[in-house]
């Protein structure tokens, strides 16, 4: 248990997230408690120079003198808020690193979008070397991750250089159904078998929202379309035909640069469905094994085996898809570096155009978290070696990093990276991370992000997650359509 006691001092989230990186799984309280193993006390002290944030850290308990240790530091607050925050995190990082013996590859960076730092600096005229030095010095980031950050930023800038953010937008369509719920999943998804009778009502409601969105956005250019979920291919071919034909009738797709569908689960993919996707202009799909080891697939609740992954991939090639992504998750229960090596060996033989490498994130709603006592977690060092394997295989396959993000409660506090051949990157993935363009989400559980450049802010709007409630809301909201 870690106690965070802040008296007239901000940065609670930054402090807590840095502790979480060093002490995963700990409970946090905000009051004095003798049971707390670590007590962080921070307070503002004003003086003629502007004041300081005074910090005291107590490790262990007064009742256990051999384990008791006390640390103290202060940070001047006359600098900018950003400078104060960075100095606070650097000093705290050094103390926690000393007490745990751990050096975090990303240093003090705890945010979701570290690449934005590099992109913003490059767009402001800083050289690659200056950006690299800044990331390592200001955030204590290791050389390997700093280079990954810069390489990804360079590719993002190249990919997006000709896109008019202000006059364009992207569309996300959510299909909240799956063949079954995976052990690690916390996304908005429901077993398709339970929604068979109301599936058509959901599609009708979704089409109604799409029609409204098309009218609302008619004066802007649609740059990318992404259909995700859930598993969109849990719908039947005729359902996909209904949805995609409506989409084509509502929207002007002349300016669409990419049309992606998260085909996802191999056990939901059929040749008939793939032909429907191809018919309506889908040019990028994902066939997601997560692992190419049968024992792991059984553990996490996937209803397919390794041969079914290969068969689904072959069907996609037969249907004419020349841009196929495959998702992999590192740190799955029971997997070690040898298992990951096998997964990438099999993927290399298939030769997809892109691979997205995720580190397992224990979300609160996932069964893997609520039942974690049943599963052995993967050690920090093991995840690090798995990332090394994935990076080397992707490099050997000619795949370069083009987008990167981080999640809370991720195995080893590492990152998720999208690797791709040049020209096969997913623009939507970059847009959702960099938040430079408006993205409208349609469907249950989707989120819209409205970029307001003149005010340098983003407005978010979320749809309800429950499909039945979504259907009712859409009926009420768009009665006149």
Automatic annotation (TrEMBL):
One term under GO cellular component: cytoplasm
Sorted UniProt keywords: Iron, Iron-sulfur, Metal-binding, S-adenosyl-L-methionine
Classification via InterPro entries: Aldolase_TIM, Coproporphyrinogen-III_oxidase, Elp3/MiaA/NifB-like_rSAM, HemZ, rSAM, rSAM_sf
UniProt domain Radical SAM core: residue ranges: 163-400
Superkingdom to which the source organism belongs: Bacteria
An annotated GO BP: porphyrin-containing compound biosynthetic process
CDD domains in alphabetical order: Radical_SAM
Keyword check for Iron-sulfur: yes
Listed GO MF terms: 4 iron, 4 sulfur cluster binding; catalytic activity; metal ion binding
Protein name per its UniProtKB record: Radical SAM core domain-containing protein
Native source organism of the sequence: Johnsonella ignava ATCC 51276
